[in-house]
Amino acid sequence: MQISSRFTIAIHIFTCVEVFKENYSVTSDFLSGSINVNPVVIRRILQQLTSAGLIEVKRGKGGGITVKKPLDKISFYDIYKAVECVDNGELFHFHDNPNPECPVGRNIHAVLDGELSDIQTAMEISMRKKTIADVIKSAKKRIEEEKQK
Amino acid sequence: MQISSRFTIAIHIFTCVEVFKENYSVTSDFLSGSINVNPVVIRRILQQLTSAGLIEVKRGKGGGITVKKPLDKISFYDIYKAVECVDNGELFHFHDNPNPECPVGRNIHAVLDGELSDIQTAMEISMRKKTIADVIKSAKKRIEEEKQK
DNA sequence: TAAAGTGTAATGTCAATGGTTACAAAACAT
DNA sequence: ATGTTTTGTAACCATTGACATTACACTTTA
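The joint structure predicted for all components is written out below.
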């Protein structure tokens, strides 16, 4: 299976907040326009990001999103964890009931667990290296370049 | 989301074939017993592995599974690719229609694509390093150790 | 107090995963 | 040839997660 679009949407949200906060009130409706998904979907993601302590959301007129951590301290991994509701944080879904009376069945878990977590770790390390700051830098650069044409 | 249990089941299958081929006819029913899933589910996975050219399956009495490549040439990645039907092979599901009239919306794809594929590559490299041979070695060792107690 | 926004419940659709039954087709042993 | 074993597959079903959508209560501020 794929990592859900909530992940890329979340990054999109951070980018919009940063790019537009000076000139617009960045609400779930506003974001909905840029991202092209229903505002409620956005709000659900905002809540997950709030629960993870990455942002704060205010209601009412002039309300909106405040990022709670320095952008270069928010990694892809933080967002992934906030937004992806994976069972126990396990990337791999192990088949549940191997037969304990079979020598392979009763050992397969012990044999594989380490290997699988190596793979998961490789992915997570790579995610930790990337931050929102990188994305925003690169986005701003592209937007500037567009203007010059 | 998680990588489906088909992946760990496939590895379980290879291990059983290797461990039991001398003494048993390793059929989908036999495997069903060790893995504890329905034989049809096993057969579906066997077909995916066949399509990937990793094994051959024979029908009828005495039929069963033949592994078509050296065990140390079958990596976790090969199995992952065979068994996990991911859209385009993309690990991340990008939200489909960012608004092209928004500066962020029309650039987000270009900005993120490279980063996401870095992450996916990290995971895949790590998967390529692990082979069925490793698993079987480790499984046989454990089974031996069990006998000595 | 009205307007602007978020929080959240309820509902619906869609796709993927897995389970299960059933049976045809193949391969082999006798 | 015939029966037996085993795979290939179709046809269901249930469950789950993802997203979309409507609706409305609750907050906050002007």
